[in-house]
Amino acid sequence: MDNKKADPATGSTPSNAPANDSKVPLTLTPEQTAKLVNLLPPRANTARRMVKLLAEHPDSITGDINRVSSVNLGHIKRVYNPILSQAGYMLDWRYPPTPINNAYGEPSGQVLWGIYPADDNYG
């Protein structure tokens, strides 16, 4: 069975997507957070804000991160995971245990973002 993740920006999920991933995001110390932020290019302000938020608040929902970021989160993940992996970390997301509803009570397609140990594919 193919368990590819959906694009969190569009909210589309394959019919065979798992309801929840077993991975757990990390909570980083201020020192670990500073190390990651310092790896990022000086102009990577959005990525820096995202790392700082996720370091303190693992399992942040997409909407919460969008309050500090005006860029597609998948783009941030794709561009900066190769850099963050140098320190052994990566940005990634997972499905929530139960769907997150929008203001109308409908499933929103939002996911939970966090910082995870780097894997071979950078997430």
Termini separation: 19 Å
Averaged pLDDT: 84
Query: What spatial form do the alpha-carbon principal axes imply?
Result: globular
CATH fold topology: Aspartate Aminotransferase, domain 1
Strand content: 5-15%
Q: What are the secondary-structure elements, in order, as H or E?
A: HHEHHEE
Biased composition (Polar residues): 10-19
Region (Disordered): 1-26
Summary keywords:
123 residues, 4 helices, 3-stranded antiparallel beta sheet, 32% helix, Aspartate Aminotransferase, domain 1, single chain, alpha+beta
Give an overview of the whole structure.
The protein has 123 residues and is of the alpha+beta class. It has a single domain, classed as Aspartate Aminotransferase, domain 1, CATH 3.90.1150. The protein is built from four helices and three strands. The protein has helices spanning 30-39, 45-56, 62-66, 73-84; strands at residues 60-61, 89-94, 112-117. A three-stranded antiparallel β-sheet has the order 1-3-2. The longest helix is centred in the middle third of the chain and has 12 residues, at 45-56. It is globular and about 40 Å long. The chain starts with 29 loop residues before the first helix and ends in a 6-residue tail after the last strand. The model is unreliable at 7-20 (pLDDT under 50).
